[in-house]
Design a protein that fits this description.
Layout: H1 22-27, E1 32-36, E2 39-44, H2 48-57, E3 59-63, E4 69-73, H3 77-84, E5 97-99, E6 102-103, E7 109-111, E8 114-119, E9 122-126, H4 132-143, E10 148-150, E11 155-160, H5 164-172, E12 184-189, E13 192-197, E14 206-211, H6 217-228, E15 233-236, H7 240-245, H8 281-290, E16 294-301, E17 314-318, E18 321-332, E19 337-345, E20 354-359, E21 362-369, H9 379-383
Parallel strand pairs: 3-15
Antiparallel strand pairs: 1-2, 3-11, 4-9, 4-10, 5-8, 6-7, 8-9, 11-14, 12-13, 13-14, 16-19, 16-21, 17-18, 17-20, 18-19, 20-21
Amino acid sequence: MSKIEENDNVGFGMQIRKSPYFKATERWGATSYSVYNHMYIPRSFGNPEENFWNLVNAATLSDVSVQRQVEIKGPDAAEFVQLLTPRNLSNLKVGQCKYILIANADGGILNDPVLLRLGEEQFWLSLSDSDILLWAQGVAINSKLDVQIYEPDVSPLQLQGPLSGNIMEALFGESIRELKYYWLAEFSLQGIPVVVSRTGWSSELGYEIYLCDSSRADQLWEYIMKIGEPLGLKPGHTSSIRRIEGGMLSYHADMDASTNPFELGLDRLVDLKMEANFIGKKSLQKIAQTGISRKQVGIEIEGNKLLGTNNEFWQIVQDSVHIGHVTSAIYSPRLEKNIALAMLHINYCEIGLKAEVSTPLGLRKIKIVQKPFYDPQKKLAVTGSPATSNNNSA
């Protein structure tokens, strides 16, 4: 019996799946788990700040097999995928990835996956936390399009951080350096079938390694750590500190089905002029015409260092008037500030505006600031260097 399973405070049942890397993450020091897409995900390998510094100074390997894939295949796969998203995919090439939104009929966001095009008639949706497999299968029933939709045997890992390129070169050879930001390629690593993409949920230089045979998970994890550890690789987990610094969104926290793309400033992911139809087009056209009543902003929170992340929406007031709420908050040891994403009424969104937020430790003063909070052009993720520009687009 594992050390986690021996803990009476942790219950495991068949209704929640274990990742194929579960035993490996335990061996390498995972101390706690939570649930995401009906699967356990490692949430701690000890100190979250140490995990953050490992990520931004070197590299971390994270089990993100909870990013379940929805495979869409068939003669009409491209048309069907366009039906699901307001982002224009007419120029999406085989081997390319795109960050997309999936909207409902009201224009609300159901998921914000990375879309991978593996072939002319083959796509993966690499999901955040919601049941898009069921949504896509339901849409397909009445679409009259020739597609097959299912969950393939695919379990991704994230190798992220400034040294990730060196580690990937040691694993795959020099050619991996040619893989462009938001592109993918298929490889065999020690006879293990994988798809590698230049993507990740860290705002750092990084790669995602999609294992295509779950029976080889333990072997894959151990081999990556064997090659990577001498080069600075540490086992880790997705960093809330770094993702909030980078303004990266977390589904259910920063958005849900009641949130539309314009409220998040994601207008670039909506093409209302394209000829192709998509779910929510009429609603999004109406919202674009009438305007939004609230908007996501970045804020700094004064006072002592926040311990951990918020697990509820903290309410924001100005002169006793409720103006919005905090969606994600954290202390950044690099910036030495408490930073947060918040959804505010449109009349209270100007940079520099001051207000107060109600936290479990009482009222604290806040100020609206520019976001992202660090590396706003995301040059680290694109090139690995904040001083180098690049025109690749996600």
